[in-house]
Amino acid sequence: MKTNIFFTADHHFGHANIIKFSERPFESIEQMNEELIKRWNEKIGKDDTVYHLGDVSLGKPDFTKEILNQLNGKIHLIKGNHEYAALRVPDRFEWIKDYHELYVEDEDVNLGKQKITLLHYAMRTWNGSHHGTWQLYGHSHGTLPDDELSLSIDVGVDCHNFYPVSYAEIKEIMKRKRWTPPFAPRD
Length: 187
Known about the structure:
Distance between the termini: 46 Å
CATH architecture: 4-Layer Sandwich
Helix content: 10-25%
CATH topology: Purple Acid Phosphatase, chain A, domain 2
Largest sheet: 5 strands, mixed
């Protein structure tokens, strides 16, 4: 059975002020939480792999556990700056890290694997960035302008209609970038 890989960040479950701060189109915190759970589960199956790049919840640990138990998928957590509650339910995550370099098998990529750097925060350069490694981040809630010359994107829910983003969707976004290897031979 083939599993899919998804990326997301910045749900801020249980955080009433995020509706105002990020101008989210929800009437209440309850509506936001319900809609975020619904959109997550519309895309992610129970056996799919999810990399959450931080800021899962600002609710209390019991509330956060209740939310996490409603979400499909095998969730890997890259810690954000708001993980007090998520860190108290570690058994819901496959692992919890500050940073991760992921390799995704992809026959379209040189050597058959796409390297992806995962961190809560955006970076201007990262390990392998000059060789085509992607960087996925959250934290900024869509406030950073996209750099079409950089293989880096914000996977936070505020940037993707409150849905997680699949590897295939990320790949299509990266294909549209105008990045070129800085050390490529010149004509």
